[in-house]
Write a structure and sequence with these properties.
alpha+beta; five-stranded mixed beta sheet
Length: 827
């Protein structure tokens, strides 16, 4: 099926002016398909040929200006049109398929109560799965939707919806928006409605999740209101839509989607089980991120997908920054960004698939290639670049340029060149030069301090080409035993330097480059700083500085400069004293999923798990007084994952609680059962009994994960069949099954499936499309088979060139991570 090319989009944008879509959807026609009638009013600027896109189950009828067209003329997803100059009206009547993969109109029946829900995710090319469209971001139009839904359902859309009787709902016409931003969410929603700043606000979820949404409603709405008000302090353009609904929807592929007036979130953000404050902070950041898109992405939209960073980098930066400014409910968001998101960016930027934040337009020739750029570079690296830009040009000038951008392009489209010109209008800084250095280049610079004790000067050595404004932290030992460090001062340095900076006073005990984490670069400690960093890490007073140092150690492990076991020993020494939960979670996550599971050999892995068990046991003891439930929950989770013997976990499961707390909620019970399954200490009867206890959608996923983890040939064969031979699994059930299948303890049992993965994944991706392809490449890849044979097989299949782009990109990244794991083991 052809994908839209940039050249085709530019040609069509010059040819057409699209004014309005009138769309009628009927969701009462069955379980497999729904009816879609679309009327598009548009103008052709000259006589010529073009096409409209749709992917119907059945194309029943079309007409152009009242004259019928032949439905048989549809070729793949394109219907050809020959137009005369002037206004036209195209009418399309079709039956469209519901999705089980989170693409198009996704349909879900809740196993908890049998209620059914449907919602759209129309990003990139999936509009065509719901209604006929000239599907590209720079053909904005007004959208007017009517939806017929079953009795008892509520319909949500981009504008305020009004029931018309007989199950029909009318949505208010939108302002000019892009096709991919149209949204519908229909079902027997549990809704909480309020009003703020003269606008209706609402939050919505499945009925079975109602008690959990009710419990968090005040928190969610407070964050929403606070961020909304803060954006209005930053932006001169007011919020441009008539309402603000947030719907938490099932089996959502992304974290959230910025549909104007109707943001959709994965409904795991409606917490059924205990969570930490950092997880609540993540939900709040996503709320802030998606709200930023109302201006950058929805009000002003990219012209073509090479500028996706204009959407995502901006929203990522604004989400973290604005949440920090708008509320004191959470810790410093930039610590979590530094530990989690920046690591995502650094990793992506060191792979063969790396690309500039703002790639050359020729590098994004079509929508399939554009989809590959939704990664740690477009999000985390781009946001880091913007944070560095703000540090360099100042926030006042940055926001002034942003407001010029909104004023010039509101309800329209813009490019990188437009954005840079608008920023440049607000400052005398060389924004164009900055953009070339930061947005058009790839890779991660490395910065290393060089301190000369003879004259007290500090030089910063740079591997790479970007200019950096960095803060250098100078630390002295405070206590007699040297366990604590105190900040002497912070010095601003521009890299490259014209001359070394003079550091007054005695030699610092520790020099930390990028203190405050305002630039995007790997740092090294310098020879004289390594010993105090390892010895005094938990004694560094500022959490963000500790995050920078932990990232340095992480990068050193990945680059083969620090033995993985030394990282584990450092974690063992310092995490029991760590106060910031984001750091604890980030360090434990890297130690378990990368070091223990991949970077260490099977022979040394048990020692790593034993160390993690001891460490988490210490953290559990530290929290016995109940003062830090988030840290205790984190420790319990990782204690479960590191277990090598079943006894303790079986005891917790039998008692229904960890001694001293917490009680085992569904998340912990399924986590324990999955670990017991991997250890061969449970069976199908126990899984079925737990599913009876928790028959929810999350319970179904937990059961699928546990069944795939059982260490028997029969269980593995059945799981493989469900993933690769049958297309019955939804996107979430596929992911859960894949997560359970590969277990480091079961390497011999599943060895036969390693060579089967590549051809089976290629065939699956061809059948089921990009969303399942991405899930297969991410979760079903044999990541724990860290050996040359797996690498050779993967390279051979990549060289054959027979897979869709979504799967190819995932395999390129997975194989690069595999090469890195092999190099770390060799080092």
């Amino acid at each position: 099926m052809p994908v839209l090319t940039r050249d085709e989009a530019q040609t069509r944008a010059r040819f057409l002016d699209v004014q309005r879509y009138t769309i009628d959807l009927d969701l009462t026609t069955g379980d497999d398909t729904f009816d879609s009638t679309t009327v598009i009013r548009f103008t052709a600027r000259t006589h010529g040929d073009t096409f409209v896109e749709l992917k119907p189950a059945t194309l029943r009828a079309l007409s152009l200006d009242g004259q019928p067209l032949d439905p048989e003329a549809l070729v793949d997803n394109r219907y050809p049109l020959t137009l005369t100059e002037g206004p036209h009206e195209l009418r399309v009547d079709a039956a469209m398929r519901y999705s089980r993969t989170g693409e198009g109109m996704h349909r879900f029946t809740d196993p908890s109560d049998g209620e059914t829900y449907a919602y759209t995710q129309l990003f990139m090319e999936d509009v065509q799965r719901v209604f006929a469209a000239f599907d590209q971001p720079d053909l904005k139009a007004v959208f007017e939707l009517t939806v017929t839904a079953p009795d008892g359902w509520t319909v949500l859309a981009n504008g305020i919806t009004t029931p018309q009787g007989n199950g029909r709902w009318q949505a208010a016409p939108t302002p000019l928006i892009s096709t991919y931003l149209v949204a519908v969410a229909a079902g027997p929603w549990h809704s909480i409605r309020t009003e703020h700043a003269g606008l209706p606000f609402g939050i919505h979820c499945r009925r079975s999740l109602a008690p959990y949404l009710d419990a968090d409603a005040d928190e969610i709405l407070d964050v929403t209101r606070q961020c909304f008000d803060r954006y209005h302090e930053k932006f001169e353009e007011p919020y441009p839509f008539d309402s603000y609904d947030q719907a938490f929807v099932p089996e959502f592929n992304a974290g959230a989607m910025e549909n104007p007036g109707l943001v959709t979130f994965r409904d795991e953000f409606v917490y059924r089980s205990a969570v930490t404050v950092t997880e609540r902070q993540t939900r709040a950041m996503v709320i802030a991120h998606e709200m930023a898109h109302m201006w950058f992405g929805d009000l002003v939209t990219l012209k073509w997908w090479d500028d996706i960073w204009l959407n995502e980098s901006f929203a990522e930066y604004m989400g973290y920054q604005t949440l920090n400014e708008a509320t004191t409910r959470y810790p410093d968001t930039w610590v979590d960004f530094g530990v989690v998101r920046k690591a995502w960016g650094y990793d992506a930027d060191q792979r063969p698939s790396t690309h500039p934040v703002a790639p050359d337009p020729d590098a994004v020739p079509d929508t399939a290639s554009a989809m590959l750029n939704f990664d740690g570079i477009s999000y985390a690296k781009g946001a880091s670049a913007l944070r560095q830009l703000v540090a360099w040009m100042g926030e006042k000038d940055f926001l002034a340029g942003i407001n010029v951008h909104f004023a010039r392009h509101k309800f329209g489209n813009a490019t990188l060149a437009d954005f840079i010109d608008n920023l440049a209008s607000a400052t005398d800084r060389d924004i164009h030069g900055w953009a070339e250095a930061w947005l058009r280049t790839t890779g991660v610079d490395t910065l290393t301090p060089a301190y000369d004790p003879a004259d007290g000067t500090l030089a910063v050595q740079r591997t790479g080409s970007r200019p950096h404004r960095v803060t250098v932290g100078l630390y002295d030992r405070e206590l007699a035993d040297g366990s604590q460090l105190v900040l002497r001062e912070r010095v601003e340095i521009d890299v490259p330097q014209e001359a070394p900076a003079t550091i007054p006073g005695p030699r610092p005990a520790l020099i930390v480059l990028n203190d405050g984490d305002h630039t995007y670069a790997k740092i090294r400690l310098g020879q004289h700083s390594e010993e105090p960093a390892f010895r005094n890490l938990s004694g560094i007073p500022d959490a963000l500085t500790r995050a920078v140092v932990w990232n340095c150690l992480r990068d050193m492990v990945r680059d083969g400069e620090l033995p993985p076991t030394e990282y584990l020993q450092t974690a063992r020494a310092h995490l029991p004293e760590e106060k910031d939960l984001a750091i604890v979670q980030g360090v434990l996550g890297f130690a378990s999923t990368q070091i223990a599971d991949r970077y260490l050999t099977p022979e040394t892995r048990p020692d790593a798990l034993a160390l993690l068990t001891d460490l988490t046991r210490d953290l559990i003891r530290r929290t016995e007084d109940g003062t830090d439930p988030g840290l205790r929950l984190t420790a319990v989770r990782h204690r479960i994952d590191a277990a090598q013997q079943p006894g303790t976990l079986q005891g917790w499961l039998a008692e229904g609680a960890v001694p001293g707390g917490p009680d085992l909620d569904p998340e912990l019970r399924w986590r324990i059962l999955a670990r017991l399954a991997a250890l061969g200490a449970t069976d199908e009867d126990a899984i079925a009994a737990e599913l009876d206890r928790d028959p929810s959608a999350t319970g179904q996923e937990g059961a699928a994960r546990c069944r795939a983890a059982l260490p028997t040939p029969e269980a593995k064969a059945a799981a493989w069949e469900r993933m690769f031979a049958s297309d019955a699994l939804s996107n979430y059930l596929f992911t859960a099954t894949a997560q359970g299948f590969w277990q480091p303890e079961q390497a011999e049992l599943v060895r036969q499936y390693v060579p089967r993965f590549y051809p089976d994944a290629i065939a699956l991706a061809d059948r089921r499309g990009p969303a399942i392809a991405e899930a297969a490449g991410r979760y079903a890849f044999p990541a724990h088979a860290v050996d040359a044979d797996n690498l050779r097989l993967g390279e051979e299949h990549l060289a054959a060139g027979t897979m869709i782009p979504a799967l190819r990109r995932k395999l390129v990244d997975q194989l690069d991570d595999l090469r890195r794991a092999l190099r770390v083991r060799e080092a």
